[in-house]
Write a structure and sequence with these properties.
Shape: globular
CATH class of the largest domain: Mainly Alpha
Order of helices and strands: HHHHHHHHHEEHHHHHHHHHHHEEHHHHHH
Number of domains: 4
Number of strands: 4
Length: 669
């Protein structure tokens, strides 16, 4: 039983917290946008997450416990792991920004992942059958090169530092309207981002993936709550501002239709949808379908930590479908914000503030801790993603760099210690990028392009035995040069290109858009009467000029943006295939072991599973009867009935979600 002394100590702690908050508020060190109860909610949330990390640390004995949780997670944990890792703080912010600027079509800023989801039904099995601790292990095994594992580890750490920075930046954008521009006399982002980083590092570094999954479960509930929390209060505010006394809060949908143009309720086409035409959505879906499969965290949340293949499949697909439903809630909230604050000049200038402004204006006056709860939910969205990314990077550094190159005899304790230290460094890198490069959309664009560096190696290597190690290196170098180096190096070596008349063209300016530079990423500037290209050189756009009938000056902004992607999608695959045909094939015996392992179904009992693997190694042609193209170098397998039914069901659910969005658009008409 709790003693009287303990109760008195707890009471003193609570009193001290409230007194400190009042003192800081009176001295303007903490602004009064939030009440004491809001800060208490945040304090309880942070303390709970840290406690889970300390508890989970006691369960960690070896690397597989730390990085994979012993591969013992069922459908529930796999679902919320996929949901948590796939739903970041940037998602509601991006949805709100897109909808505020483009109406309901703005949802495609996040919803483009929807039609990638059916692929997860198939890919989840791959990750479980790989039986690797990192995706870098798979690249080492497939291309028989430890150096390839190092290259992938560098890619993974850089990718997650940038992606994590985007999530931290989003929190900074949202928190400013909630807690004010300054905290403790310092710019809010510079205080809040490091505090969040410390907590996520504490429970992730200490407890490993088990702590991350437990917190993902809790944080997943918070994210779902976040998705609906503002809607009833927002609809009520719409009725109070524009309705009549006899209207109820449910009449808010009808009033929104009265206050906003019809184009704001169109998901494709129309004036409000000019940023998201169908062709742009198709290209972005293809690019992300190719890129997402090889991002390092998918070896974990994509199914690698599941007990069985079915747990992997159901968890990955269900978690991602929950996110799609949450997106509908974010869109409704954004439409409410557009109705209430559409003429707010500050929001028109920076639509990223839309979510935070709505929270402050709609929940703040209630004074019951809902602002703190909303901020905690947004922090949950960030933390459930960053914890996973941090641990994946730790595993990459330990497994694919330290052990093979620095200390092959490293023990479990040494590897765990290094893994924990690496996780902290990755989060620190994300924080540094976040506070020094606050443009989250440049960060997002970078996360789309960077995976293309390894995309061809993954997909061609998965299904074609003839893919070679040398071809892989050639493709990596090609991507780095054409995506990142040459666009900056060419104008540096030949600066006259920036003023060349044929390269300072822009598309035709209209009332709704245009006037965008065709060849320069930073646009055009006039300097003493001379147009000058700014930013990197989009030399790949020159290829379109060679196509008969193509006039880039006549296309829309969305078309011009979309045309940047085909080269980045197609060229690496062509280079990989051609280079493989011209270079020496890899060792057949090693390839036999790799592909037969990928074909061997997983048994939830580790001892039985290992016995099946040994049987497959002894008989590499064990599953050749299932090959779609027998006696060839192609490793496509005949899909099972379960594969086909699940895949088609996922596609049906995708269209069902679109149907729900269309129904939501008609509520109140």
């Amino acid at each position: 039983m709790e003693t009287l002394k303990e109760r008195l100590n707890q009471k003193r702690l609570r009193n001290a917290f409230f007194v400190a908050k009042e003192v800081l508020s009176e001295t303007n060190l903490i602004p009064t946008f939030m009440e004491a109860i809001d800060y208490l909610v945040l304090f309880v949330y942070f303390a709970g997450m840290a406690a889970i990390g300390i508890w989970a640390m006691k369960q960690v004995k070896v690397q597989e416990d730390y990085f994979m949780g012993g591969r013992r997670f069922g459908k529930l944990f796999q679902t919320f792991a996929a949901f948590g890792a796939g739903t970041g703080s940037a998602d509601p912010v991006n949805t709100a920004r897109g909808t505020f600027a483009n109406g309901m079509s703005g949802m495609w800023g996040v919803m483009y992942w929807l039609f990638v989801t059916p692929m997860y039904w198939i890919s989840a099995v791959w990750y479980r059958r790989m039986r690797c601790l990192t995706l870098g292990d798979w690249f080492v095994e497939r291309y028989q090169s430890k150096s390839m594992g190092v290259a992938y580890a560098i890619f993974g750490c850089f990718y997650y530092m940038v992606y994590g920075a985007m999530l931290f930046t989003a929190i900074g954008k949202v928190s400013v309207p909630l807690v004010g521009p300054e905290l403790f006399g310092v710019q809010t982002e510079y205080v809040l981002v490091p505090v969040v980083a410390i907590v996520v590092t504490l429970y992730g570094v200490l407890g490993g993936i088990a702590a991350a999954y437990w917190t993902d479960l809790i944080q997943g509930v918070c994210i779902i709550l976040l998705s609906v929390l503002l809607i009833p209060f927002g609809l009520n505010a719409v009725v109070e501002k524009f309705g009549s006394p006899s209207d109820s809060w449910t009449d808010g949908f009808r009033i929104m239709h009265e206050q906003l143009p019809a184009s704001n309720f169109t998901i494709l086409g129309g004036d409000a949808a000019s940023e998201f035409p169908l062709y742009a959505i198709v290209v972005i879906v293809i690019m992300n379908m190719i890129g997402i499969a090889l991002t390092p965290h998918f070896i974990v949340t994509g199914g690698g930590t599941a007990k069985s293949e079915q747990d992997a499949r159901i968890g990955l697909v269900t978690g991602n479908f929950i996110k799609r439903f949450c997106t509908i809630g974010w869109v409704i909230t954004a439409l409410i914000v557009l109705t209430l604050f559409g003429d707010d000049m500050a929001l028109m200038k920076d639509a990223d503030m839309a979510w935070g402004t709505a929270t402050k204006e709609l929940l703040g006056p209630l004074g019951i801790g809902l602002v703190g709860l909303m901020l905690a939910c947004l922090l949950a969205a960030l933390m459930s993603s960053v914890d996973c990314y941090m641990l994946v990077c730790s595993a990459l550094v330990v497994r694919n760099f330290y052990v093979p190159f620095i200390n092959p005899q490293a023990g479990e304790k040494e590897c765990l210690l290094l893994g924990r230290a690496t996780g902290g460094i990755v989060v620190l890198g994300a924080v540094v990028i976040s506070v020094t490069m606050l443009d989250m959309f440049k960060q997002l664009e970078l996360t789309w392009v960077v995976p293309m560096t390894f995309a061809a190696l993954f997909w061609v290597g998965m299904f074609w035995r003839r893919a070679t190690t040398k071809a892989g290196w050639i493709t990596i170098v090609f991507c780095i040069l054409t995506f990142f180096v040459l666009p900056r190096l060419i104008p540096a070596v030949a600066p006259n290109l920036r003023t060349a008349p044929e390269l300072v063209q822009s598309n035709l300016k209209t009332e709704t858009g245009g006037g965008k530079s065709i060849y320069w990423s930073g646009g055009l500037q006039e300097n003493e009467g001379t147009l000058t290209g700014v930013g990197s050189f989009r030399f790949d756009m020159l290829a379109y000029e060679k196509i008969p009938g193509v006039d880039l000056t006549a296309v829309s902004n969305a078309a011009l943006k979309t045309l940047e992607f085909p080269f980045k999608i197609i060229a690496p695959f062509l280079v990989m295939i051609l280079a493989s045909l011209l270079t020496k094939p890899n060792d057949k015996k090693a390839l036999d072991r790799l592909y037969v392992k990928l074909k061997t179904p997983v048994d939830p009992v580790p001892e039985i599973d290992q016995a099946e693997i040994e049987k497959s190694y002894a008989q590499p042609d064990r599953f050749d009867k299932n090959k779609l193209f027998p006696n060839s170098n192609l490793e496509f397998q005949r899909p099972t009935k379960y594969d086909v039914v699940g895949f088609l069901t996922c596609f049906a659910l995708c269209f069902a979600i679109i149907g729900i969005v269309l129904l939501v658009a008609r509520i109140g008409t």
